[in-house]
Design goal:
DUF2794, 110 residues, 5 strands, alpha+beta, 24% strand, globular
Length: 110
Amino acid sequence: MNAPTPLPLPSPEVVCFDRREFGAIFSVYGRQVAAGEWRDYALSTGREVAVFAIFRRAAEVPLYRIEKRPELRARQGMFAVLGQDGRVLRRGHDLAQVLRVLEKPVRPVD
């Protein structure tokens, strides 16, 4: 008699950005691409974190990383923008507020 085949283990939950979050990210990303500042991006998902990495050129290290860490939801906020050197530039509960750190200040016209 054959032994029963075990059921596949459920896959662990994967953290990812939802449609509204992607809308906010791509709004900022699109403006910076149009301005010629950014040229490429990469997306990574995992069990603990989802990362949207922004590049000036494809062969570089990312200029910025936008991270979503749901485990920090109750404490510091699950969204963060990290700089090229890994420093946290801004962290919070509201993605739109966190993304403001990526907006270039408007310079007055002479």
